[in-house]
Amino acid sequence: MLKIILFWYKTIAAKAATKVLTPDFGNIEVTEILNGYWLRYKLLKKEIIKEPTFGGTLMVHLAAMSTAFYQELKQRGIAEVRATKYFYDIAWRVYKIMGKFSWNIARLKYQSNAKRLKYATELLSAFPFNSPSYKWQNIPQQDNTVLFNCTKCPVADYFEKKGLSEFCVNTWCALDFPLAEMWNAKLERTNSIAGGAKLCDFKWKPIN
């Protein structure tokens, strides 16, 4: 099952990368980048230790794929900021597919935007960000705000070991904010594990 899902991600990511990179790179170079990052991932995945949950293992593999792509761009002389932006734009095209799936299920179940928001976050914490690979602390809600903390994140741990915590903050962590907008909400977070904090504090506020 893991191989099938990773193949799906590889296919979707390749399409997204082609759209993002084509304006600045020729077709041949885009192909070389995609081939190069996949070869790097194949080497990185040998180091991956299986997580307690399937979702956690999947996320660490995606972190390795992210690392491989970033390394490939850097190897080609692309500046850190630019390489990070390329990856962010590509990753968002993939992440929003996951977000739309959860949101569409929530829309079918609830009429209230606040209840949809709570349910959508619960779906993602059930899979792929599920315990015990991830650890969550639910906080009593204030009004319609959805509050919870993440106290363990295998992706943040992976990037820290690779010396790429800042890259994680500017890509993986940053993608939660446009996700909130897509869910008709505003996300507030003071810090994250990847940013050096002990936990990621999530505060999701429905817009309407």
Notable characteristics:
single chain, 208 residues, alpha+beta, H-NOX domain, four-stranded antiparallel beta sheet, 62% helix, globular
Quickly describe the structure.
With 208 residues, this protein is an alpha+beta fold. The chain has a single domain (2-206), classed as H-NOX domain. It has helices spanning 2-21, 27-44, 54-75, 80-109, 113-126, 154-161, 165-173, 176-182; strands at 135-139, 146-152, 185-188, 200-206.
What can you tell me about this protein's structure?
The chain is an alpha+beta fold and 208 residues long. The protein has a single domain (2-206), classed as H-NOX domain, CATH 3.90.1520. Helices cover 62% and strands 11% of the residues. Strands 1-2-4-3 form a four-stranded antiparallel beta sheet, covered by helices on one side. Strand 1 and strand 2 form a beta hairpin. The longest helix has 30 residues, at 80-109. It is globular and about 50 Å long.
Q: Strands, helices and their partners?
A:
Elements: H1 2-21, H2 27-44, H3 54-75, H4 80-109, H5 113-126, E1 135-139, E2 146-152, H6 154-161, H7 165-173, H8 176-182, E3 185-188, E4 200-206
Antiparallel strand pairs: 1-2, 2-4, 3-4
Helix pairs in contact: 1-2, 1-3, 1-4, 2-3, 3-4, 3-6, 4-5, 4-7
Radius of gyration: 17 Å
Order of helices and strands: HHHHHEEHHHEE
Could you tell me the mean pLDDT? 97
- Percentage of residues in DSSP E strands: 5-15%
Q: What is the 3D shape?
A: globular
Question: Helix tally?
Answer: 8
CATH architectural designation: Alpha-Beta Complex
Sheet of most strands: 4 strands, antiparallel
Total count of domains: 1
